[in-house]
Amino acid sequence: MKLINRETIFLCSFFIVLYLISSCEQVKPLKNTTDCDNMNLKSNVCLVIQENFDVQDGKETNSNTIILKFNHLKNLLKKIKGKEITSYSYDDSGRLIVEKHSKDIITLSGETDFINLSDYKKYYYKGDNVFPFKIEEYYGNENNLNATTFIERDKYNYKTKTIKVEYKREPISNEAINDTTIISFKNNGNNIYTEIEIKQGKRILLEKYQINKHGQITSKHIKDLNVIVDTIPT
User: Fold this and answer.
1) What is the pTM of this model?
2) Are 195 and 205 in contact (CB under 8 A)?
3) What's the N-to-C CA distance of the chain in angstroms?
4) 165 exposure class (CB count in 10 Å sphere: 0-12, 13-18, 19+)
5) 40-63: per-residue pLDDT in tens?
6) CA–CA separation, 195 vs 59, rounded Å?
7) What is the sign, positive or negative, of the torsion defined by CA atoms of 234, 190, 33, 120?
């Protein structure tokens, strides 16, 4: 009887271990941190005012203020830096769906005046995934689509490729000319990207990174695959 019990316990333990191993293999690196967490703000923060000063000869020469506002889910709601404002909108699951950026610039006319320029990005998701598979960039209004980025991921949700198509027109003939940039990512299995290949037209750049055990980049090497000349790793 004891022998049977031991065999039963062993078999159960064996299958539990197999189950845990298979479960770990399916674990996806889902985004489970908020903007507050990423900024090391541990409590429920609603407002941060950051002032940066330039000091010369012991005197303050100029300063700039950055204001960060957070929502009740501890995600960034608005960033204000001078005349630049970036606002963020989320769905009911807390996923970013719109990022809008606007700023006032001085006109080139004789009178000093400001005009407002705005652009925004829209993020699209599949099912319950917390990572977007498509990002659209607009300039000014809903009818002016500037670019679309498609994002591919592996079964662990690691980003493997992005394809960005920029929609442009030839100034004189008004003929559509689209630019496509393809970026391929290679990671070491811990969502730390060690190699990036960038294709834009006929040009291909290869970036390689050395990363220490803390996930920090210790060196970067960029090589243009279309020319013989190579850069020195830094």
Assistant:
1) 0.71
2) no
3) 68
4) middle
5) 887 788 888 888 877 777 777 777
6) 45
7) positive
